Amino acid sequence: MAVRDLEAITRDFPEYAKQVEKHFKRNFILIALDSAFFTFSTALLSQDTVLPAYLNNLTSNSILIGLIPAIFYLGYFLLQIISAYINQNTPKRKRFILIIAISERVGIFLIAISAQMTSRFSNSTVILFFFLAYSLYSSTMGLIMPAYSDFVSKAIYKKRGLFYGINQALGGVIGFAASLVATRLLATRGFPENFRAIFWVSFAFSFISPIIISNFKETEFPVQPKKKNVSAFIKNIPVIIRRNPNFRKYVLTRQLFGLATMGHAFFTIYAIQVFDLSDSMLGIFTMAILLSQSLSGILWGFIGDKFGYKNILIIGSVLLFFEGLFALTVNHPLGFLAISGFIGSIYSVIFISHPNLIFEIAPPEETSLFIGLSNSLIAPITAIAPILGGKIIDSLGYPYLFLTICAAAFAAFILAMFVFDEPRKNKKTTS
Questions:
Q1: What dihedral do alpha carbons 386, 36, 78, 96 form, nearest 10°?
Q2: If 0-12 CB within 10 Å is exposed, 13-18 middle and 19+ buried, where does residue 54 land?
């Protein structure tokens, strides 16, 4: 439920509120642990460090490498509107979440299989199989999010900033352990054995998450929107967008924000190429991303709870601008370690601000729809961004990529600061 509606829901549905409160601590802990342990698995499949380096061993085509984040964002964001339709008027989310969570593991398994194919099949065949596997992985991650976010919005009805901050901290600690594993495997084994080991470890640890999900406690929300058929559901989308001007402003801001992240898949490769670094540095860069994501998440959670999540979005756009500016001027490998810190802080901005802003913008009974719709509208830009980044690199060079990042980040800052309205304005809130 939206924070601003907590008092009304408590008044109108006291038994529901009582049940949510009863399971609050249990769900708080379990959801945080689920996120943390899944972070271990996903850290070993980092779209910014591990996977670009894996593909870089198979091809020198920057556009193909840019397809990694493009496919992730397209699968993760675009399909969420489908999930929102499936879950409309569904009183409970847990069963759907568990089914899709298990399906995610199939994608991870196939990514590991792609590494087993190296040296046995042509590089082009391995790359094609990898992208098919990665598409399945990213799509299932996208399908789960509207239902999962809606579950979180109901179960964690208070202290969300604290919750997301703790999530980031736990994820950082466990993800840090994953980066140590990756660093060790990359330093002691050659290609392709190093990546094979990393992917199989990721697959093994991914099974902790479904066990935790099965122990969630869910309370049926007492109000459900009227179920629509496919035609009515699609026709209702433009109506929702038209009737919610601040939602439109937010989506446009996030689209520019996503465009400014176009360089995240290329910073590590650039550093390795320019400074002749070993592949083991991938683990160090991943550590910096996760450590920064963990520590900054606690800060962003506090600021969001206290002052509003719009401020986190503004801070993120500033960080993106300085990320591009720093990449233009840095002349030492340690500088790219700092850029990894920027990346982690920016990811925690997205992780904490995006769901919470949607929770505050959307009617409580339509959280899944607004989450799915917003992410599907953001998807095309975030998917095109890294492909555009690869094209810029191949045609003009890295400096032009970094300049483009600065320009997109500045535009996102202007919209976040002066166009998008604080959702809490003139509304009662509670922590």
A1: 160
A2: buried
Residue 192 CA to residue 43 CA, distance in Å, equals 18
Give the closest residue to 190 by CA, choosing from 57, 59, 65: 57
Cα–Cα distance for residue pair 406/389, rounded to 1 Å: 13
- How far, in Å, CA of 424 to CA of 305, rounded? 11
Distance from C-alpha of 16 to C-alpha of 260, rounded to nearest angstrom: 42
Neighbours of 32 (CB within 10 A): 20
Q: 335-365 pLDDT, tens per residue?
A: 899 999 999 999 999 988 998 899 889 887 7
DSSP state of 121: B
Q: Up-side HSE of residue 385: CA atoms within 13 Å toward CB?
A: 28
pTM for this model (two decimals): 0.74
pLDDT bracket for residue 429 (50, 70, 90): very low
Domains of the chain: 17-419 (1.20.1250.20)
Closest to 285 (Cα-Cα) out of 320, 130, 258, 275: 275
Greatest C-alpha distance within the chain: 65
% helix, strand, coil for the chain, step of 5: 80, 0, 20
Specify whether the CB–CB gap between 392 and 401 falls below 8 A.
yes
H or E segment to which residue 170 belongs:
helix 160-188
The amino acid occupying position 311 is N
Residue located via tokens 């990393």: 198
